[in-house]
Amino acid sequence: MPIPFTQIPDALLVPGQLQEIDNSLAGSVGEIKKALIIAHKSDAGTATAGKPVRVFSEFKAALLFGAASPAAILAKCFLETNKTEECWVMPVDAAQGATAREWRFAADCAEARTGAVAVTINGSRIAAAPVAEGATSENVAAAVVAAINGELWVPVEAEALANGEFVVRATVPGAHANIYTAEVASEADGVTVTAGVAPEGTQSPDLKPLLKGLGSVRYNYVVSDFDDPAGIKAVAAELDDRYTAMRQIGGRAFVAVSGDVETALETAKKVNCPHVVLVPRLENPGLPGEWAARWCAAACRILADDPAANTYDLAVPGLTSEIEYDMAGRQTLLSAGIATYRVDSAGGVLVERLVTTYTKNTDGGKDTSYLDVQVTETVDAVRTYINAEARKRYRTWKLASTDENFGSGAKVMSAGVFRSFLCELYQEVFIKGKQWCQDFDGYKSSLIVEIKTGSKTRLEYRHEPNLIGQFYVGAGLTQFR
């Protein structure tokens, strides 16, 4: 049979011992998994808005996106949980004309005693502001402002006004900060702090042009800090498009959903996307984006290695909760397309079930085909593996419409050759090697491979992988005598 040399010409006349090196049959196919965080930068950040940048450390994030910006905080949360996947951040500028969420306070002193003023931001107490004996209202206000502005990882800043008044405001203006909380309480005798007006922030950025600007780079996992309906819809639409046959760069997004259960259910109804996981922050304190970033970082570390892996009881480092919903509540959330968690004995958050928001088909009927995120992850992985392996093995091959014998070693593709290729991958890789699929006989009997009629370049096939499931429910009946 002819040997397919590519570097040594057939007409070579010069004597010598020559060997080509061909790596096409060595190694394994795969890809580096990328996670993309989408969040606001502050004006102090040096990064260009809308342009993804890779982040290796939390302090680099603070420089790129501005200390105390949501983008820097979410990058820090992700990197604390997962340093294996590549962490990328697409910083977003505040919408033009946006106003900031604010909280106004007034300190009043009457024979102040030594003590402190406690500052709690988003449910977490930061360093207390010291109060000295005989402090004035201006002294207290200045101490609180200094304590807040000395924190790198809270998304607010403070400013002292006149007569002991001071204002706390979100680092980046916009409606995203309206869920933030700021509490200031005196723990020093003779000092009181009174809360005043708290105007909400306005406007959210349009993510659609920024997402289109991502081009053809694949981001396997996405964390979005924009949990407003338009923001979730924009991410869902982009991921739907990336999942299509013409792009094939699918990814899964994690977005926190907040509020009571009824509010969360209304949010889920408006999404219905097999690529969006709603993380159940609900009525817990803390930044919504932090919940999304930590859930994504923990889950994608498991799913990146095995897209079909069961994530039940996966610990989410850095998150605690005093709220644990009963079985009926969790069933309601799961049915609506919202993920659920349990709480361990120390209050730590454990992933219970990662579901997507896809619950209905195009006719509005109930559809569980994309219930668990492992389904889209595994289907995407199977497609990616087949495509990569086919490119690796069959580059420069010809195509024949018949399955006749072209001779040993011939680089000729046919329906029979490709059918054998698919069956080999299914049995040896997807079943035995990775345990992504099952039922080889059923797969083989359903497989259709053919050359398109009238074409000399197009091979078509239909296959029906039977995905492996997750062992979530063991139901037994005990009948004793």
Describe this structure in words.
The protein is an alpha+beta fold and 481 residues long. It has helices at residues 58-65, 70-81, 137-149, 208-212, 229-242, 261-269, 288-305, 327-335, 373-394, 415-433, 440-446, and strands spanning 34-40, 53-54, 86-92, 102-109, 115-121, 124-125, 129-131, 156-160, 165-170, 182-186, 191-195, 221-224, 252-258, 276-282, 314-320, 340-343, 348-353, 398-399, 412-413, 437-438, 448-451, 459-462, 466-467. The protein is 28% helix and 22% strand. α1 (58-65) runs antiparallel to α2 and α2 (70-81) runs parallel beside α7. The mean pLDDT is 95.
- Counting DSSP H or I runs of 4 or more residues, the number of helices is 11
Radius of gyration from the CA trace? 28 Å
Intertermini distance = 75 Å
Spatial shape: elongated
Helix-strand makeup class: alpha+beta
- Look at the structure and give the mean pLDDT: 95
Strand tally is 23
Please give the domain count.
3
> How large a portion of the residues is in β-strands, by DSSP E?
15-25%
The residue fraction in helices comes out at 25-40%
Could you give a short account of the major beta sheet?
A: 6 strands, mixed
Strand order of the largest sheet: 2-3-1-12-13-14
Flag low-confidence runs: none
